[in-house]
């Protein structure tokens, strides 16, 4: 467009100031347009087309001709290209010349980010005074920060999970520790489920330590832990509660006879020689057991004390055997 005498700007100047403008003739035809609006709406093919054949005015509604549009001059408009009804543009129309023509300037509004992505727009597609690209940089920076915070949160959550697991694990054997046992025992009591409790103590473990050294003693404890895991179920809690002491919590057992059978299997396995890093070690284990169903109102302290009492009965009666707390009937 050559220099327009109605407002004294040529096409280049107008396009530099408003790359999203449309110049509408009195009958609604598009006389000229900015490079950016032409790029997103079909290029040079816009010129000569009726504005109302290309756009739908959403707000205010009912604007279907130039008279109605001129009556709304200076008011904010919301409009969409007819071929892309989901894309909402903002606009402001002002009269030029004799007042019958309109200069309509458009912007992307909140759809800026999607428009830049969809049309690969750059800083050159916006007016020099437009802060659109700066806004995009802020959004991208915010997104990067949010992603970094999300990643950091995931790492912290993972570290927390690992720390919580480590806090419940015996570092030497990988079994649960006393803290984990207390939590599982309390949980079983709250659920009011029947369970068995088994207290185990290795016989003459001090002799192994004194004879072969603590490294072999530690290896022996790890081998014992393997046996205990293999003879119990995935849902059982196997814990090391002291130097050579272990407690096993076994939920949902059929009865004391089942618990006694498991204890006898453990005793048989541990009576066999264990390979402790090339050194063959022999130990036996004394076991005391009780079951929650033997108590009207079972408590963790009472159950642990009774299993411990049964253990020391096994110690007094020759070691390498299993004893049941007197309050437990094997006929249950």
Write down the overall mean pLDDT: 85
CATH C-level category of the largest domain = Alpha Beta
Tell me the CATH architecture of the largest domain.
2-Layer Sandwich
Number of strands: 13
Tell me the span between the first and last alpha carbons: 102 Å
Helix content, binned percent: 40-55%
Strand content: 15-25%
CA radius of gyration: 41 Å
Query: How many separate helices?
Result: 11
| Structural class category | alpha+beta
Structural domains: how many: 3
Largest sheet: 6 strands, antiparallel
Report strand order across the widest sheet.
Answer: 2-1-6-5-4-3
Per the CATH scheme, the topology name of the largest domain is: Alpha-Beta Plaits
Order of helices and strands: HEEHHEHEEEHHHEHHEEHEEEHE
CATH superfamily of the largest domain: Reverse transcriptase/Diguanylate cyclase domain
What gross morphology would you assign?
Answer: rod-shaped
Which regions are unreliable across 5 or more consecutive residues at pLDDT < 50? 1-6
Architecture overview:
The protein has 332 residues and is an alpha+beta fold. The protein has three domains: 118 residues, 2-Layer Sandwich (Beta-Lactamase), CATH 3.30.450; 37 residues; 147 residues, Reverse transcriptase/Diguanylate cyclase domain (Alpha-Beta Plaits). The chain has eleven helices and 13 strands. The strands form three sheets. Strands 2-1-6-5-4-3 form a six-stranded antiparallel sheet, sandwiched between helices. Helix 8 packs across helix 9. The radius of gyration is 41 Å and the shape is rod-shaped.
């Amino acid at each position: 467009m050559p220099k327009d005498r109605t407002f004294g700007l040529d096409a280049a100047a107008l396009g530099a100031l408003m790359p999203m403008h449309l110049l509408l003739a009195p009958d609604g035809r598009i006389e000229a347009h900015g490079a950016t609006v032409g790029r997103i709406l079909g290029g040079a093919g816009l010129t000569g087309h009726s504005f109302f054949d290309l756009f739908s005015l959403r707000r205010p509604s009912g604007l279907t001709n130039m008279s109605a549009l001129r009556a709304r001059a200076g008011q904010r408009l919301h409009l969409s290209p007819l071929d892309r009804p989901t894309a909402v543009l903002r606009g402001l129309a002002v009269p030029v010349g004799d007042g019958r023509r309109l200069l309509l300037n458009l912007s992307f509004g909140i759809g800026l980010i999607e428009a830049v992505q969809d049309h690969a727009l750059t800083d050159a597609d916006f007016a020099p005074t437009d802060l659109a690209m700066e806004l995009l940089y802020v959004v991208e920076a915010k997104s990067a920060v949010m992603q970094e915070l999300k990643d950091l949160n995931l790492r912290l959550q993972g570290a927390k999970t690992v720390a919580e697991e480590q806090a419940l694990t015996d570092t030497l054997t990988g079994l649960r520790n006393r803290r984990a046992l207390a939590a599982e025992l309390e949980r079983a009591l709250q659920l009011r489920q029947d369970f068995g409790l088994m207290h185990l103590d290795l016989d003459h473990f001090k002799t192994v330590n004194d004879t072969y050294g603590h490294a072999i003693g530690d290896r022996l404890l790890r081998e014992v832990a393997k046996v205990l895991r293999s003879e119990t179920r995935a849902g059982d809690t196997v814990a090391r509660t002291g130097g050579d002491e272990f407690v096993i919590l076994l939920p949902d057992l059929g009865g004391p006879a089942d618990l006694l059978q498991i204890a006898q299997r453990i005793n048989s396995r541990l009576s066999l020689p264990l390979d402790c890093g090339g050194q063959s070690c022999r130990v036996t284990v004394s076991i005391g057991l009780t079951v929650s169903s033997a108590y009207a109102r079972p408590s963790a302290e009472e159950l642990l004390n009774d299993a411990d009492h049964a253990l020391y009965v096994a110690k007094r009666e020759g070691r390498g055997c299993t004893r049941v707390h007197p309050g437990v009937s094997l006929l249950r």
